[in-house]
Fold this sequence. Notes:
The complex is a heterodimer. By secondary structure, chain A is of the alpha+beta class. Chain A has a single domain, classed as Immunoglobulin-like, CATH 2.60.40. In chain A, 17% of the residues lie in helices and 38% in strands. In chain A, the strands form two sheets. A four-stranded mixed beta sheet of chain A has the order 2-1-3-6, with no helix packed on it. A four-stranded antiparallel beta sheet of chain A has the order 5-4-7-8, with no helix packed on it. The longest helix of chain A has 18 residues, at 2-19. Chain B has helices at 2-23, 28-52, 56-82, 91-108, 112-141, 145-171. Chain B starts with a helix and ends with a helix. In chain B, helix 1 (2-23) runs antiparallel to helix 4, helix 1 packs parallel to helix 5 and helix 2 runs antiparallel to helix 5 (112-141). Chain B has six helices and no strands. Chain B has a single domain (2-171), classed as Ferritin (Up-down Bundle), CATH 1.20.1260.10.
Amino acid sequence: MRSRRALFFAVSAGTLLLVCPPAAAAPRTYTVVIDKMKFGPVPAQLRKGDAIIWVNRDFLRHTATATDHSFDADLPANAKVKTVLKKSGAIPFICRYHPGMRGVLRVR
Amino acid sequence: MKHVIALIAAAAILARASAAVAAAAPTDPQIAHIAYTAGSLDVAAGKQALARSHDKAVRGFAEDMVRDHQAVNVKALDLVKKLHVTPEDNATSQGLTKAAQATSERLAKLSGAAFDKAYIDNEVAYHKAVNAALETTLIPSAKNAELKSLLQTGLTLFREHQMHAEQIAKGLK
């Protein structure tokens, strides 16, 4: 009897796992630092919904601008701006004022 | 022709600064003065372009020059203050100022497409000359690490400016 009950619970739990998808990973926030006319390393494992805080440590004004226009952060000297990644895929970005400064975000 | 002479003059002044380094490298107070002067002259050129040009790309470039060179000079002034260094006037700074004065007078007589082309051509040549001087003379001669670092960031920035000016020059008739 006890084993049948245990079996029932095990099956029920299994069914529940099948029915309810695993909760989506909570959005995370990452930092990308701009210093001496360069974007620092970009985080790997980015997911849609995650956020990036762009930190401009330069004394120059920069922007972090997606070439597909999905984000455009204006970054005066020493500013911090948060952008949320609303789409997945490879998103190249540049500084509009200094287009030689560039990088790519890879969002899953 | 005058325009070519002015460009050659600016390049020659900076080349002379490079050649002089073999005999006596510029000191940090002189380097600070040359870098600040070169920046101020380009801010003035940018303001002249904003007063005279109606071309969107040229005006955008001029705004970038005013904003970036002013920012570098504010940083340079903060640094010399912190280091208790008094920038020292020298032949290179004086030569640059004289050449820029001649260029400004020549540009003041031009308008429209002729002005745009002359301004951008001068910006290409000016940034080329300043970048060469930074690379071969000013950065290697700088003793203070913070000054050297600022000049290196400046060189990365001014190379961007040179590329941007070259790109605009291609689009101007």
